[in-house]
């Protein structure tokens, strides 16, 4: 029964949060779009089906247009018109047409595998030639005139945007919804029942801004939550590949301390790029055992990671050859890699030596150069200074965009790791980047600034299907709870958190101002288990700046019948009964709903809860109620 209900609940979630990405392909030898597919499409298809020339009405410009034309059915090459046409023996049907050379068997097989793998597509890639050139230097924005009650700079910019797009601003979010959203966004947990009641009763017109500041001042809770974001981005984990043989080094203690003290982001970046012993793990990367492709050596890892994390630049393709998907060249990736090299770094193209030695250089040489004759430590100092140079607007735009994405559900530039794409509002991105720099690269101030806007405090809109360049901002988007948020919320609800962390960091005690319900060891401080992995916590062998939104069959199975969640809810039920020994079924239902959903149950929900609990409440019946509530889209989404 529980299994079928879980699938039903997931069906509701899928309708509420459509998947933007293709389903994952086979775990081994998955198609590499840039290397396996783009060269074929460019050579054999692009002339007739890209960049405004769409013969037969078929466009290969983007994945969305290809799928919309029904020329390729993701996961089903045998049903795809593309494969039928390139293998046709009919001269009138075969593609490419006329006297053009047909595709080889190897090329047909590559396209078929690409389709069978779900039609993977490099985020942000299009066959249309780029017409937008992302600026480098910061730009000060002149704010539009303010409307009454909408004086916040973000709202002033967005009001002009809405007017230009003939849209109305989204409706405001009620107090309970706002409280749940801002608690999850800033500290990763829902409000306690007492906090929610106090907030609802507060008549101060400035109470939302006060709540934002209060949460950001809760240093331990803030750090425990945002540690997941930075562990993902900086490839930091507590165990796994590389740790056994010394080929990888943690930065946990440095990272936790940096978040706890709200270290300015420019200093944070400099300490990662030109590191001391406690922060060098990011720059060192992973020393893989055995032979690896030349593009995966530690020096190239450094270039790829610095480019992705700090500039939203994809240097992975450019680490093998001049990129097919953007403007980065092989020399760019190798030049950045040479900064950290201990010896002359020989360039390789597609794993073959070119005979050239890479010279240290910055991605944006107009900001300054790196002295190739200087020792490595000095070169890294020079690089750190260029990354955080006051004229390097790409640095501040990238982080402003990442924070907007985390709080609002989608970046101003999308995807967040393709910062060469045009933002849907250049004024908003430039404004936030300058605000961030002028306020000392203070991440908490940037979060506070966004969270105190009317835009953030508006009702969420359903996630739109991918619309590429046609995207129009209409308001905050629905967000799924991350693996950490979901499990932390379950632990908080059930009192089942571990007693000790495993993260090797100096973790301070909670101050008395933090409610007892939130004083527990968080998911970010313990090793990953199969449920966390199923819900999206990555293995962190690669930089991860966004996690997949799509729900999977594995998640449905783990949430329906998985031993970890089942055991947790059974233990939680025992804890709840122990804390509420004389509670009636109605009182237990209200207790669970208020703590799980920040509201009381409706009449229908009360009746359903009583039916689950039965006349004689047992641990099993309470566990069933807990499970039914945590399966609700309302629990699993931040609205």
3D architecture notes:
It contains 28 helices and 5 strands. It is mainly alpha-helical. Among the domains are: 26-116, no CATH class; 229-360, no CATH class; 553-638, no CATH class. A two-stranded antiparallel ribbon has the order 2-3. Strand 2 and strand 3 form a beta hairpin. It is globular, with a radius of gyration of 26 Å. The two termini are 28 Å apart. The model is unreliable at 1-27 (pLDDT under 50).
Short summary:
This protein has 639 residues and is mainly α. The chain is built from 28 helices and 5 strands.
Given the structure, what is the number of helices? 28
Helix/strand structural class? mainly alpha
The strand order across the widest sheet is: 2-3
Low-confidence stretches: 1-27
**Helix coverage percent of residues?**
40-55%
Give the strand content.
under 5%
Q: For the residues shown, what is the average pLDDT?
A: 91
**Shape field:** globular
Q: Characterize the quaternary organization of these chains.
A: single chain
Task: Work out the number of β strands.
Answer: 5
Q: What Rg is obtained from the alpha carbons, in whole angstroms?
A: 26 Å
Biggest sheet overview = 2 strands, antiparallel
């Amino acid at each position: 029964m529980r299994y079928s209900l879980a699938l039903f609940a997931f069906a509701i979630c899928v309708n509420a949060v459509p998947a933007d990405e293709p389903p994952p392909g086979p775990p081994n030898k998955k198609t590499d779009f840039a290397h396996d597919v783009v060269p074929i499409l460019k050579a054999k298809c692009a002339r007739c089906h890209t960049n405004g020339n769409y013969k037969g009405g078929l466009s290969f410009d983007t994945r969305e247009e290809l799928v919309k034309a029904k020329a390729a059915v993701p996961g089903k090459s045998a049903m795809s018109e593309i494969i039928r046409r390139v293998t046709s023996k009919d001269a009138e049907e075969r593609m490419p047409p006329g006297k053009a050379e047909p595709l080889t068997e190897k090329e047909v097989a590559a396209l078929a595998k690409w389709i069978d793998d779900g039609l993977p597509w490099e985020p942000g890639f299009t066959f249309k030639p780029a017409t937008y050139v992302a600026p480098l230097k910061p730009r000060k924005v002149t704010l539009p005139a303010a409307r009454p009650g909408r004086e916040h700079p973000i709202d002033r910019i967005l009001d002009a945007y809405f007017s230009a797009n003939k849209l109305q601003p989204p409706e405001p979010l009620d107090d309970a919804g706002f409280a749940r959203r801002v608690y999850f966004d800033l500290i990763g947990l829902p409000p306690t029942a007492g906090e929610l009641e106090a907030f609802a009763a507060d008549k101060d017109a400035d109470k939302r801004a006060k709540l934002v500041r209060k949460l950001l001042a809760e240093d331990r809770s803030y750090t425990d939550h945002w540690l997941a974001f930075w562990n993902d981005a900086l490839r930091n984990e507590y165990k796994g590949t590389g740790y056994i043989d010394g080929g990888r080094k943690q930065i946990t203690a440095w990272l936790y301390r940096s978040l706890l003290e709200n270290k300015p982001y420019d200093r944070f970046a400099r300490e990662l790029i030109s590191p001391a012993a406690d922060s060098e793990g990011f720059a060192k990367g992973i020393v893989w055992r055995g032979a690896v492709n030349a593009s995966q050596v530690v020096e190239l890892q450094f270039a790829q990671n610095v480019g992705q994390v700090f500039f939203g630049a994809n240097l992975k393709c450019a680490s093998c050859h001049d990129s097919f998907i953007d403007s980065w060249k092989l020399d760019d990736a190798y030049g950045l890699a040479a900064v950290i090299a201990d010896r002359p770094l020989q360039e390789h193209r597609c794993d073959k030596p070119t005979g050239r030695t890479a010279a240290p250089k910055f991605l944006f040489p107009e900001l300054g150069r790196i002295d190739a004759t200087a020792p490595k430590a000095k070169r890294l100092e020079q690089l750190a200074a260029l990354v955080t140079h006051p004229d390097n607007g790409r640095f501040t735009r990238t982080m402003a965009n990442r924070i907007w994405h985390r709080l609002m559900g989608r970046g101003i530039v999308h995807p967040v790791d393709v910062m060469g794409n045009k933002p849907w509002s250049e004024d908003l991105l430039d404004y936030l980047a300058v605000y961030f720099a002028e306020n000392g690269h203070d991440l908490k101030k940037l979060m506070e600034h966004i969270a105190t806007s009317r835009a953030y405090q508006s009702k969420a809109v359903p996630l739109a299907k991918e619309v590429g360049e046609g995207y129009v901002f209409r308001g905050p988007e629905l967000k799924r709870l991350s693996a950490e948020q979901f499990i932390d919320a379950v632990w908080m609800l059930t009192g089942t958190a571990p007693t000790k962390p495993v993260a090797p960091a100096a973790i301070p005690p909670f101050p008395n101002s933090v409610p007892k319900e939130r004083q527990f060891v968080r998911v970010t401080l313990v090793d990953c288990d199969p449920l966390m992995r199923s819900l999206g916590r990555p293995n962190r062998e690669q930089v991860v700046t966004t996690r997949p939104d799509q729900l999977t069959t594995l998640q449905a199975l783990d949430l329906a019948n998985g031993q970890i969640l089942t055991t947790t809810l059974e233990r939680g039920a025992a804890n709840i009964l122990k804390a509420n020994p004389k509670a009636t079924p109605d009182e237990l239902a209200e207790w669970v709903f208020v703590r799980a959903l920040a509201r009381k149950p409706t009449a229908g929900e009360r009746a359903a809860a009583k039916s689950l609990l039965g006349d004689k409440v047992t641990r099993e019946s309470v566990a069933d109620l807990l499970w039914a509530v945590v399966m609700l889209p309302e629990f699993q989404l931040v609205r």
